[in-house]
Amino acid sequence: MNHASTEPAPYTVVGGGAIGGTLAFALASAGHPVTLVDTDRAHVDAIRAGGLVVARGDARTSLPVTAVTPDEFTGSLDRVLLAVKAQATPAAVDWIEPRLAADGYVVSLQNGFNEARIAEGVGARRTVAAFVNIFADVVEPGVVLDGGAGALVIGEPGGAPVSARVRDLVADLHSWGPAVASDNVEGYLWAKAGFGAMLSATALADAPMADLIDRHRPTMAAVAGEVFAVADRLGITLEPFDAFDPHPFRQDADPAARDAAFDHLTAWLRTQSKDRSGIWRDLAVRHRPVEVATQYVDVFAHATERGLSTTVLRTVMNGLEELQGAPHLMAEARLDRLDRLARTESPAHLADSTQAEAIRDWLDQHREDMVADLAAYTSQGSASDDQEALAACLAWLRGWLDERLGTPQAEEIFPREGAGDILVRRYPARDAGAAPTGPPVLLLGHYDTVWPTGTLESWPFHRDGDHISGPGVFDMKAGLVQAVWALRALDALGLPRPASTLMLNGDEETGSIASREAIVAEARDSRLAMVFEAAADGAIKTARKGVGLFTVTITGIEAHAGLDPTAGASAVDELAHQILHLSGLRAPDAGTTLNIGVVEGGTRGNVTAGRAVAHLDIRVASAAEQQRIDRAFAALRPVDPRTRVEITGGWNRPVFERTEQVAELAGLARRCAALLGHDLSEVSVGGASDGNFVVAAGTPVLDGIGAVGSGAHARSERTSVEGMRERAALAATVLTSLAVG
């Protein structure tokens, strides 16, 4: 398509907004025949009536450009500049494909990563890659505001060498400005994705981009760093453009270099006439959906696949979604909250494969020692309702911990009336690579079991090949053995570990009523918590339901049912009405269950019941559902006004929701499992744990990292020897990754 010595090449611009309008004007000004295709009838009509107008300051310049809607277009397409919003790409390509000449092509002059989607429609041979960073806006139908200088790079997809058609196109686009050809357009696109993440964040508030980027550097560095971590994992070579150099915004960049890059970037942005992003304008002026969610689909997909955190960027996207249709909710306080989130995000540097293999091999050599420890621990009865047995078990644990891990840096024992005491042991960070300061990692477990004292006499510890059975081996004695041997492996191999707090309570199986406050206090002083409760078919647990235990008591009026049947007010009848009403609160689709497990009432068959009681177990998957149940209880009224309805009890454990930080920890665990040669899944469960308290306190949790097996609270309870080795290795690999994060 070399047309250097022929008539100016004709172009069709599909999407005549900020980018398309700017380039259409530039090509038309150089004498190229330009047809602009746009779905906005008002925009098309204005261009037909007064030409395509570009405004620069107070000056406006108009050029005649052919403008049509897609329905009005006739003929074929040759050189297509595609400049529609990312979410409109599939529909635009469907329109282009039947009209595109065999030797024609489509150039993706869009935000995001759209080349693959275009190639699916028109073929890779007819797709051209491009990076565009043009500061412009459509300010009224037919009028494009030129926001200042930008960047434009054209190249073949997939990093192929620059072709003749690319060189010809770049030569024509010099009518706009400094367009260049490159065999690394992808490097520019990923660099812009990081810069675009910053601009997306600025749309959360109504203030100039430069000022918001300058004032909220933690957020801006975090969102760009999350994007560039994905690019690095994909092997992308990032390219600087305009005043933006991506390299100082990598997660491991020098802080001084990053600050200098911020200074340079914000100074340049203040020279631009366009001081707010197109995303802000879509929300605040045009009141239309923003395209950024589509732009970052690929980023999130690659991050998820590779277990990389995008916590801050996802929070930005969630915030923009909330602002759609509600621009009055824009507030700089949103960025203040993101700054706090960004400061707490300290991405762990994953242990390398050599370290993971060393951990796995060392624990494999000591698997029989782990089994012996579990046998000894299981022989210690620890029924939740036997304080003497709990005290003896805790004394044994202290001696065993001394033997396996040495003397702790500090030990605290919190006596509890009517329950097992709480043991807290603090271990310092180890190895020069581990950060010596900062909050510790909380290793949380319980030593009580549901099995009554004396169970061991009829059901002792037993091993059959890989399977181990016995009271409490799955819930959760094997989990504690694994945690201890994980720490022991790191010490033996000289690998780093973070400061760690081991906390064991003795009343988890009865609701942790006596230990809840201590757990919450410790959680708030911790970086994160690893809860060594048993796995769910090998999966970690990233969401648990909140649990409410309630009693409905009805007080009626007793009377002789035969001699004076109308004198009484039956509590049983009233309870029946209330049970039917309460049953309607179930919401399976929302994860809410309500079980009426025990009902009792009345005294004799010939006496109108004066009292009736129902005991309820309610489980909810969200705080919103918990609030709905609370409101319903507050609104309960008796059907028979002569009776009285009373609700007692409460929420035993809060909801454990899958927060972004919980998801990040799950991602880290999956990456560590992959290093060890196995897959790790996650699951939401109906049962609760002490992890519920920790998440509600604002501390992220990795739960269900304990035993692999089945049969909790049943005589079929068992765990796996290989599972013990595997999960101890996983815990150790996670810990050493956290130590250098």
Q: Give the radius of gyration.
A: 33 Å
User: In the residues, how many domains can be counted?
Assistant: 4
The helix fraction, in percent, is 40-55%
Q: How far apart, in Å, are the first and last alpha carbons?
A: 53 Å
Structural class: alpha/beta
Verbal overview:
- Strands 5-2-1-6-7-8-11-12 form an eight-stranded mixed β-sheet, sandwiched between helices. It has a six-stranded mixed β-sheet with strand order 13-14-18-15-19-26, sandwiched between helices.
- Helix 3 (89-96) packs parallel to helix 4 (115-122).
- The protein is an alpha/beta fold.
- The chain is 40% helix and 21% strand.
- It folds into four domains: 11-183, NAD(P)-binding Rossmann-like Domain (Rossmann fold, 3-Layer(aba) Sandwich), CATH 3.40.50; 188-345, N-(1-d-carboxylethyl)-l-norvaline Dehydrogenase, domain 2, CATH 1.10.1040.10; 353-544 and 656-738, Zn peptidases (Aminopeptidase); 546-653, Alpha-Beta Plaits.
- The chain has 25 helices and 28 strands.
Helix and strand topology:
Layout: E1 11-14, H1 18-29, E2 34-37, H2 41-50, E3 52-56, E4 59-63, E5 66-68, E6 77-82, H3 89-96, E7 100-108, H4 115-122, E8 127-133, E9 136-140, E10 143-146, E11 151-155, H5 164-173, E12 179-181, H6 185-202, H7 209-215, H8 217-234, H9 255-269, H10 278-286, H11 292-295, H12 297-305, H13 311-323, H14 332-344, H15 353-365, H16 367-378, H17 387-405, E13 410-414, E14 420-427, E15 441-446, H18 455-458, E16 462-464, E17 467-469, H19 473-493, E18 500-506, H20 516-524, E19 528-531, E20 540-544, E21 546-555, H21 571-583, E22 593-601, E23 611-620, H22 623-634, E24 644-653, H23 660-675, E25 682-685, H24 691-696, E26 701-703, E27 709-710, E28 718-720, H25 721-739
Domain Ketopantoate reductase C-terminal: 184-322
GO molecular function, one term: hydrolase activity
Cofactor: Zn(2+)
